[in-house]
Amino acid sequence: MTAPPPQRRRPASPNGAPAHTRRPKPRPASPVLVRQVRNGIEESVHRGDIVQVDAAGRIVRQLGDPNRLVTLRSTVKPFGAIALLEAGGKEAFDLQPAEIALLASSHSGEDQHVRTLQGLFRRAQVSQSLLATGVEGMPLDELTAARLARDGERPGPIRHMCSGQHTVLMLLARLRDWELTDYWRDTHPAHLAYRDAVARAFGVRSERMRTAIDGCGLLTYAFPLREVARAYAMLADPGAIPADDERSALAEPLTLIRDAMLEHPEMVAGTRDRLDTALMKALPGRLISKSGMEALRGVAILAGQRGGTDTGPSGLALKIEDGDGHERATWAATVEALRQAGVLDGGALRLLGRYHHPTDPDPHGRPAGEAVAEFELAPVGELIG
Prior knowledge:
Blueprint: E1 32-38, E2 41-54, E3 59-63, E4 69-71, H1 77-80, H2 82-86, H3 89-93, H4 97-103, H5 111-124, H6 142-150, H7 163-176, H8 189-201, E5 210-213, E6 219-224, H9 225-236, H10 251-263, H11 265-268, H12 275-282, E7 287-292, E8 296-301, E9 304-306, E10 309-311, E11 314-320, H13 328-340, H14 346-351, H15 353-356, E12 359-361, E13 367-373, H16 380-384
Antiparallel strand pairs: 1-2, 1-13, 2-3, 2-11, 4-6, 5-6, 7-8, 8-11, 9-10, 12-13
Helix pairs in contact: 4-10, 7-8
């Protein structure tokens, strides 16, 4: 009798369960946020969820499900950078604001990003050849990618949009004299320190966080959308964290990260076709915008006058349900949400016109299709009343 073939074991996920065995529970359809229209004909729609919270975590405005579970992806980066600053990285490596902004970035791989990181690597005496981001689809900046292709130059990992995030872990390992070659493994002490910083920023225990593997090989973490907004409200004004909140211990490193990102928006994303940078330049010193893959965005809105009244700091988080491969829905919905929240108006809104109403031109430059954001982000008080 022939013995049955041995069963293949599925690889384990970072949570210890077999990979790909978890199936998301069915959830109600999100509301339509953006319609893709061509000469008045609706071709497709993009659904999604939006929530804005104040510094205390109270919902100010919402549309859809504020408790929708999302993976942070690159929206985690400002909070993970806390680990290096808490360890004394600013003093040890003489970190400058532009470099700190880059550590929290999803940069476009332009030359200014590469030069800044290379200078940091030289100063820290760390080889950039150890970067383990991969190079698939990089750099994000099309002009830089075209120039490299023309010159026969293959982009290296330093041009990857996550090389700043990986640098945080590498510098932590250098500072603590930990092994550098496998810094990216989720069991590495640098990775554990990064994870702990994220857990504390979100007010949870590290071992209880639900995780997954991000596109660059590091872990990403899952939270309800409203908690993403709350974290960004905290980033908007770290000094406003109540003293009895354990997260108040993060105020100093978060302030350094916030101010660096405000001062260097071009390091947070890039100089061309990056909404994060465009938003921050349109309203200098007023907000921080940070995108994540699969159409997630967190916005830290600093205190200031809006609609003729003084308002406190808040955070806004937005998720497009279908992942928005074209970015048009994310662009249009983000700008419209900030308009309705009273953050954008007048000249700033005009500066962002191409993001507010993204168009698809034909080969002759004529606008052929347009993404139209149509939703009402009503204050919660009005929804209840």
